[in-house]
Amino acid sequence: MRAGPADGGSRDLSVYIHVPFCAVRCGYCDFNTYTATELGGGGSQAEYPANAMAEMDLTLAADRAAGYDYDQVSTVFFGGGTPTLLPADDLVAMLAHLRTLLPLAEDAEITTEANPDSVTRASLSRLAAGGITRVSFGMQSAVPSVLATLDRTHDPERVPQAVAWAREAGLDVSLDLIYGTPGETVADVETSVKAALACGVDHMSAYSLIIEGNTAMARQLRRGELEAPDPDDMADKYELIDDLAAADGLTWYEVSNWARTERQRSRHNLAYWRGGDWWGIGPGAHRHRDGLRAWNVKHPSRYARMLATGEMPVAESERVAAQDRQVERIMLELRIADGLPVEAVPEQTRGMLDVHRERGHLDAEALATGRAVLTRQGRLLADAVIRDLVL
After folding, report:
1. Is residue 92 classed as helix, strand or coil in its secondary structure?
2. 280 located within any domain
3. Is 232 found in the same domain as 327?
4. Which intervals hold domain Radical SAM core (predicted)?
5. What is the pLDDT, as a whole number, of residue 1?
6. 288 has which bridge partners?
7. Using CA atoms, how far apart are residues 61 and 67, in angstroms rounded to an integer?
8. Do residues 224 and 81 both lie within one domain?
9. Which of 86, 127, 184, 355 lies deepest, with the highest CB count within 10 Å?
10. How many domains does the chain contain in total?
11. 18-55 exposure pattern, b = at least 16 Cβ within 10 A, e = fewer
């Protein structure tokens, strides 16, 4: 049986492949990542592609056993970690294996994250020839002192070189920035954004630094070695980023993301924000299927041992309740430029839409047509607006 939308339309799938390897662990990062010296017991980089492909096989079999199938894969995203620590041939092999299981859409968006110092001209050319269409470089900053605070190891001068190589290979290019690093000035942010835009990128992400409690940077804050970012300073930096992006022809389409054209928006991330279905392949990866959410065991060695016995490497799963799905929809869709249909907001809180329109947080014209769309001031206060709209 092929499960699909009630109207009989096609059902697309997105696939996230988590490659949990990094050359070093950055002090601010709490992602599920490991350096080579931390791994063993079947969880090594060399064994990872075969493990990931085995999980793809098991995932497809489990979906089909549940009477669930897809027409095509519309987006693939190799994330991490640093996927490009693996040889380019490994990423291409995983993509080729996926293609044997499910058809890829003709215009499928296939992205890999990369550090600027983890690629070469030859590796990017191989990725493009193997089907990758897009690369997202973790630039973070163009200021050496900021990179040092973040424990980033690449030379800022390497970024334009890596972008040029990607362009030469025919890849779309995104640069990811982080703002709000302790000690970073507004001038530092301006330097970084201008450097990113000077590369002629198609897409830019700029995320405010969130210091998670179990990271090295959090421990530095607790010891008084670093100073926590000031909210007003963060707002000034966000407005500067938005102004510089707009002046260069990039338009915001999600609170932290800007693209030069609609085609160059990250369709993979949009699938998350719009509540689509996706596979999560790899240690710690999450998957979603029509309100059923599951996530894998985190450690690569345990992940490998489970796959070796033919067992799905799932740690836990849950069926998301209807009310929770409604809350998640508001939290995610309100952050994108297309906004949220008014009818998606609970009747009990719908009156807050007019309150936030009067405060300048929601676009009045869009609201008159039945959609809640954040203004720039609203983007700065998105979490507060969302809190007022959920039960």
Report:
1. helix
2. no
3. no
4. 7-251
5. 35
6. 278, 293
7. 10
8. yes
9. 127
10. 2
11. bbbbbeebbbbbbebbbeeeebeebbbbebbbbbbbbb
Residues 68 and 166 in one domain: yes
Beta strands 203-208 and 172-179 are: parallel
Q: What gap in Å lies between CA 312 and CA 306, rounded to an integer?
A: 7
Alpha-carbon gap, residue 18 to 281, rounded angstroms: 6
* Exposed/middle/buried for residue 224 (C-beta within 10 Å: 0-12, 13-18, 19+): exposed
Structure tokens at 292: 């059923």
Task: Report yes or no on 344 lying in a domain.
Answer: yes
The answer to whether the beta carbons of residues 286 and 294 sit under 8 Å apart is: yes
- What amino acid is encoded at 166 in this protein? A
Last residue of one domain, picked from the residues 255, 273, 291? 273
269 and 335 together in one domain: no
Domain that includes residue 229, residue range: 12-273
Which tens digit of pLDDT belongs to each residue from 22-61?
877 665 666 677 776 666 667 889 999 999 999 999 999 9
Q: How long, in residues, is the chain?
A: 391
Spatial separation of the C-alpha atoms in residues 167 and 150, rounded to whole Å? 27
State the residue for tokens 């690369």: 135
Q: pLDDT tens digit string along 181-240?
A: 988 999 999 999 999 999 999 999 999 987 666 777 767 767 777 777 788 999 999 999
Say how many Å lie between the first and final Cα of the chain, rounded: 37
The reply to whether 368 and 266 lie within a common domain is: no
Q: Are residues 137 and 268 in the same domain?
A: yes
In a domain, 129, yes or no: yes
| Cα–Cα–Cα angle for 179, 183, 187, rounded to 5 degrees | 60
C-alpha to C-alpha distance for 125 and 90, rounded to whole angstroms: 14
Residue 110 buriedness (CB in 10 A; 0-12 / 13-18 / 19+)? buried
Tell me: do 90 and 192 sit in the same domain.
yes
Is 322 exposed, middle or buried (CB count within 10 Å of its CB: 0-12, 13-18, 19+)?
exposed
Residue 102 carries which DSSP code? S
Q: Report the C-alpha gap between 276 and 169 in whole angstroms.
A: 30
Domain boundary among 273, 289, 304: 273
d(CA 163, CA 209): 24
Is residue 316 assigned to a domain? no
Residues 185, 50 within the same domain: yes
User: Could you give the CA distance from residue 191 to residue 197 in angstroms, rounded to a whole number?
Assistant: 10
Angstrom CA distances, 290 to 6, 14, 73, 293, stand at 12, 13, 16, 8
